[in-house]
Each structure stands twice: as C-alpha cells, then as structure tokens.
C-alpha cells in the first residue's frame, strides 16, 4: 500500500473512530482504535505507520481548530459536500502518483513512487472477471484491488442504497460542478419530456447488461486463468489510461456527448448512462435503508399545509412529498430532501420512519464500507499487485501492440 493510500485509509478510519467518540459511543471508538492498532501490528508496514501518524496529526489539528465538519453539529449538505470533496482530493493525489509511476516506467527508470493499487477501481470489467474467478477458486495476482473495489461498491449498494453515488462518486461530483457552471450561463432547467426520460434512464441498464454479458457469459471459467495471466490484463490499467489520454475521433465524440449530457441535465450521466448507477439502483431495492416520510410529523398531514420542499430539493426529481417510502432506483441517499424539510422527524433515511440515521451516521457507514474491506484485503495479502515492476516496464513499452 502506497503512502497516498495509507494516508487516505488511516485518515478515514481515524476520523470514523473520533466521530464515534464524540458521539458518545466510547465502546465503539475503542474497538475501532484497537482494530487500527491490530491492523498496524499485522501489516508491520512503515508506509501504513507513517500514514497513521500523519493522519492522526492532521486530525488532532482539525479537532483543535474545531471546524464544524470535524466536530459538533453540522448541516447535512455541508457534511456531504466536504466528504465528497475530500475523497476527490485523495483521488487526485492517487492519479498524480499513478501518472508519475507510469511515466517513470515508460522512461525505463525504476520508479521512486510506487503504483497505488486503488486505481484498479477503474477496471470494473476486470474486477467482475476476477470475482467470477474467485467463485471458481481462481485468485488474481495482477490486479486484486479491482475485485476488492468492485465488491466494496456492490456492498455499499446492498447496505445503504446508492450512497456511493450521493456521497462518494468523483464522477458525480464533476458532473455536479459542470451542471452548476452551465446554470450560471443558461438558467433554465433543460429537462427532457417525461415520455423520453424513462427510455433514457433504461440506457444505463442496457450498458449494465452488456457488462454482465462480457463478464458472465463471454468468458467461460476455463478461459479465466489465461486472461488473468495474459499481458493485456497485466497492464489493463495502462490500456485504460491510454484510452482516455489518447482518444480517437469516436472516443472524443463520445466524451463531447457525455459533457453535453452532464451539463444539460443534473446528474445526467448517473441517471442515464452509468452502469455502476444501474447496478447500485438494482441493489438499492434490497437495501433496508430508505428515505421515509412520517405523516404524523409532515406538515401536509399534521397541519394541513401545502409543502413540497423535499420534492423541490431532490436532484433526481423524485416526488418525495406524496410518498411514505422512497423506493426509486434513482435515489442516491444524498439526504438533500431531509436537509430541506422544515419539520424535524417528518423525513429521514433509515430502516423505519421512527428509526432514522443522522447524516453523520450515513457518512460514517459509507466511509467504513469504502475503507474497511480494502484494509482487510491488504492485511490478507490480496491488495497489492504481484506483477513484477520489470515486467510492467517491458509491457508498457509495447502497450499499443497488446490486445485481448
Ligand atoms: S429522495 Fe432525497 S435522498 Fe433520494 S435523491 Fe432525492 S433528495 Fe436525495
Ligand atoms: S419537506 Fe418535510 S414537511 Fe414538507 S412535505 Fe416534505 S416531508 Fe413533509
């Protein structure tokens, strides 16, 4: 595990432990801290220890300065935005480290910066093939983090709906920024008509079906070891990076279309095209956590007032104020509707209308799901790529000639 990964991981876990402590859950905080210490002892890694020390120092400074997001009461939208921006920043550092590592390998130098394995999260098809391989007893050694990160994202969908989309996804964040930029110049909401919205939403399920076909049906179990040990898979991350940094005309046209969609429609990519959004949307039907409206407290039923603030706040255009439970596959558990509701206890995200989670709990749950499994995978030796650096260096030189 590299220093960027170690720092992000330990920052997340120590922050979670500190939040448990501040929330009065001292037993939970002690268990979390003991687990971190145990993990450090098992890993015996200088990088992980360094990441822990720096993270602990950083958190101590934040608690000392007492910014609202670190301690005490904080608004839902502020908390979610802060969390998403911090994750995005961590990802930028990872991208920088990965780029430097690859440039050095391409130049034939021994890199002084290690390759962050978390970049394998951008190899969902490889991750799917690896998970299929694991079910047949085949464990990939080249990009194990791809399988781990795919499992992590799926797990978040099962447990806390599309909270990954609403709280963590970097693409969703970029889309939101581009949409807001467009709104500064063109104020109107350019919504597609209802009859067109539904078929467009189904596009992401078609893409998901194509991915599932590629992973589950196009490759028989017997072919998996050959694929996982092949040269293409060994540098699948580099092939993916090359696809983005040296785009052809068709790729550029697709990028332009995507840009148009995310600026035209809020969450346009998530809503219409993202296959991750599709699979998380399907899993979200099983998730016990849902947005629930309590009519005993809602202004509509309890006071006979007209109110639709929750609906107007929803970026996914879900009609919240007439439902008791939001089951929509488009709900990203962002809790903007809860933040907009003027009546406490009228709206919440939880397993029942009387048991709602606070925004901080949703954040800690998402944080734990995102980081605990990668830590466990690292401790069990299924995180770091075992592809020798020399092999990677040689393959990168001929990356353009390596195909499936
Ligand atoms: S219903 Fe609420 S939590 Fe779901 S997407 Fe809309 S605003 Fe976010
Ligand atoms: S914003 Fe709150 S009070 Fe208003 S309709 Fe929605 S749930 Fe009811």
Commentary on this structure:
This protein folds into three domains: 73 residues; 247 residues, no CATH class; 69 residues, Alpha-Beta Plaits (2-Layer Sandwich), CATH 3.30.70. Helix content is 64%, strand content 4%. It has 20 helices and four strands. A hairpin with a 2-residue loop joins β3 and β4. The longest helix has 31 residues. The chain is globular. The two termini are 28 Å apart. The mean pLDDT is 89. One iron/sulfur cluster binds next to α18.
User: What strand line-up does the widest sheet have?
Assistant: 2-1-3-4
How many H/I helices?
A: 20
* Average of pLDDT: 89
> Rg to the nearest angstrom?
22 Å
Number of domains: 3
Secondary structure: number of strands:
4
Q: What global shape is seen? A: globular
| Helix-strand makeup class | mainly alpha
Bound molecules: iron/sulfur cluster
Instruction: Report the uncertain regions.
Output: none
